[in-house]
Amino acid sequence: MSSLVPSPWFLVPKKIGIMGGTFDPIHLGHLATAEAVREFFALDEILFIPAARPPHKLGRHVTDERHRLTMTLLATRSNKFFRVSDMELKRTGLSYTLDTMNELHKAFGSSTELFFIIGADSLADLSKWHAARELVAKCHFIATTRQGVDLDFSAVENFFGSAASEHIHRVTTPGLEISSTDIRERVRLGRSIKYLVPEAVEEYIFNERLYL
Ligand code: ATP
Ligand code: MG
Fold first, then answer.
1. Is 182 among the domain residues?
2. Are 197 and 24 in contact (CB under 8 A)?
3. 155 is in which domain, residue-wise?
4. 183 CB less than 6 Å from ligand 1?
5. Nearest residue CA, atom 7 of ligand 1?
6. How far is the CA of 131 from the centre of ligand 2 (A)?
7. Distance from the CA of 92 to the center of ligand 1, in angstroms?
């Protein structure tokens, strides 16, 4: 009689969501979005990857990566499906998503599918990303709604062709109108950031005197 041999764990197909961002600071909009996407697409885990020097944010000051990484760790520690990677922070030079995805494909193997989570505001700019067409061909994108942003998907389809409908999935997530820009501004003005960031992140911001 034949018996089923369990596949080695590394051959079990996995679906991993990637949440990239500057996380300056990470807030409940990021966290609620990641959790909603994980549940909707039945992803095995979400990997939060703070960006080193985002090419589109070269013009403005970005808080020291040590602080952004610590806040990301603090914010994600209560969710067993959330993990944090410092791979982009360790890399020298500009941070390109294509390099990150290639590195992850190598590390996880071909049985793992990668889903890059991207807000509607970032999706509108996707065609301008480094090697955008190659990137969309290689991995899946999950485009989430963001309040105040009307997503023009036909522009995305025009640029990416059939890869758009095959590799860019859209999902409606709880619309939390929170942005890191607003949080930084609130701290500077001495206004409350309660219920916009996890408590541990709020404490960290005040203890380290960030955004003043
Ligand atoms: P900043 O105001 O500094 O640009 P941000 O709030 O937009 O910060 P980012 O770190 O730039 O945060 O965003 C990382 C990713 O998270 C992007 O794909 C962005 O679209 C998405 N995102 C940010 N805030 C929200 C939110 N409130 N709801 C859903 N997605 C969000
Ligand atoms: Mg942003």
1. no
2. no
3. 11-176
4. no
5. 179
6. 20
7. 23
Measured by CA distance, the residue closest to atom 2 of ligand 1 is 181
Whether the CB-CB separation of 88 and 95 falls below 8 Å is answered with: yes
Residue type, 14: K
Contact 136, 126 (CB under 8 A): yes
User: Does residue 197 contact residue 75 with C-beta atoms inside 8 Å?
Assistant: yes
Q: For ligand 1, atom 26, which residue shows the shortest CA distance? A: 29
Ligand closest to the CA atom of residue 142? 1
In a domain, 197, yes or no: no
For residue 114, is it within any domain?
Answer: yes
The rounded Å distance from CA 154 to ligand 1 centre is: 22
- Per the structure, how many domains does the chain have? 1
Collapse the DSSP code of 158 into the 3-class scheme (helix H, G, I; strand E, B; otherwise coil) and give the result: helix
- Please tell me if the CB atom of residue 145 comes closer than 6 angstroms to any atom of ligand 1: no
Note whether residue 205 is domain-resident. Answer: no
Quote the DSSP letter at residue 97.
H
* Residue of 100, 174, 171 lying closest to 138 (CA atoms): 100
Q: What is the whole-number distance in angstroms between the Cα of residue 130 and the centre of ligand 2?
A: 17
CATH number at 147 reads 3.40.50.620
Instruction: Return per-residue pLDDT of the chain as tens, 212 residues.
Output: 445 555 555 556 799 999 999 999 999 999 999 999 999 999 999 999 999 865 666 678 899 999 999 999 999 999 999 999 999 999 877 778 999 999 999 998 888 999 999 988 888 889 999 999 999 998 999 999 776 677 778 888 999 999 998 999 988 887 788 999 999 999 999 999 999 999 999 999 999 999 99
